[in-house]
Amino acid sequence: QLNVLHKFKGIFFSTMSSKELLNSLDSFDAREDDVFLVSYPKSGTHWVAEVIGNIPSAKINLTSPIEFGDISKFEELKMYSKRRVIPTHLSYDMLPRNIKQKQCKIVYIVRNPKDVAVSLFHYYRDNPNLPCIETWPAFLELFLRGDVVYGSWFDHVLSWEEHKDNKNILIISYEEMKKDLSKSIKKMTTFLDINVSDSEINKIAWKTSFSEMKSSAAKENHDPNHTICALTSNRNLVFRKGAVGDWINYFTSKQKRVFDELFTQRMKHSELARRFEDYSK
Ligand code: A3P
Fold first, then answer.
1. Do the beta carbons of residue 87 and residue 152 sit within 8 Å?
2. Is 246's C-beta closer than 6 angstroms to any atom of ligand 1?
């Protein structure tokens, strides 16, 4: 349990992301048509991956995260012949240089941080690849300090927000997907230049509903080669509640006040933060 995380450049990573791999990220050779699926953990990564994986004419290979594994990772990624869709929880600064130079398409998924905190708390409790944590207040403290895997939510989101006007970056929120999934799917397929009919979109929306995904995860054998999140390949750990606003069941009014103060302070100049105001009152 003690050795499930290690620090790299001041940020916690899973030991399944080797130091050598993290050190050599800049030697990754991106292809112009690569698509990156980026998020802070628990923001809806599996959901968006499932949406993209279900686009009938997409002709893609969904790979494991770029930061997952050891130094042989880049050789492994070379083997894919179709357009690669590569997930990652890296911050903008750590993203391999070549991806930025080639202006690969990037879908960034963002979620209201109070719900992220609650979701990550459960992940810490249920996932053997994360440290043991006793209580919600103890976890929240770590989360607010950024002493959790992949670091501070605030740093992560702000690092990406700085680049939100790049035409190769699409920012999608968990909350907008919950509100109108078909519309979000349309946004993604348009961004990726893939033609999909309205009836196909509705079909994707149905297949990627929370209940469908949760029940198919329960049915399948867990395949260690099919990893969306570098913290587990066991999809049964992923589908918990799938709701907006579950934070209300965990935060005391004092915890909410402390959270809001930090949020206001850190996100003062953030336009993205405005998207969450309705979900965090
Ligand atoms: P909860 O723990 O709040 O339920 P990630 O894929 O980035 O690890 O994010 C996991 C979170 O997304 C979990 O949140 C999970 O339930 C939720 N999620 C996964 N698939 C979903 C879907 N199809 N619809 C809604 N929420 C989904």
1. no
2. yes
- Supply the mean pLDDT for the chain: 95
* Beta carbon of 157 within 6 Å of any ligand 1 atom: no
pLDDT category of residue 222 using cuts at 50, 70 and 90: confident
Residue 258: CB atoms within 10 A of its CB come to: 15
- pTM exceeding 0.95: yes
89 is catalytic: yes
The ipTM (two decimal places) reads 0.99
Q: What is the mean pLDDT of residues 159-163?
A: 97
Residue type, 116: V
Helix (H, G, I), strand (E, B) or coil at 192: coil
Whether 119 is in the pocket of ligand 1, judged by its Cβ within 6 Å, is yes
Q: Which residues pair with 13 in a beta bridge?
A: 6
What is the predicted pLDDT for the residue at 28? 97
* Cβ pair 111, 44 in contact under 8 A: yes
d(CA 90, ligand 1 centre) in Å = 18
Q: What is the pLDDT of residue 278?
A: 81
**Rounded to the nearest whole angstrom, what is the distance from the C-alpha of residue 27 to the centroid of ligand 1?**
32
The CB of 241 under 6 Å from ligand 1? The reply is yes
Residue 148, CB half-sphere, CA atoms under 13 Å: how many? 31
Mean pLDDT for the stretch of residues 19-35: 97
Q: Which one of the listed residues 6, 89, 163, 269 is annotated catalytic?
A: 89
CB contact at 8 A, 68 and 129 = no
> Amino acid identity of 252?
T
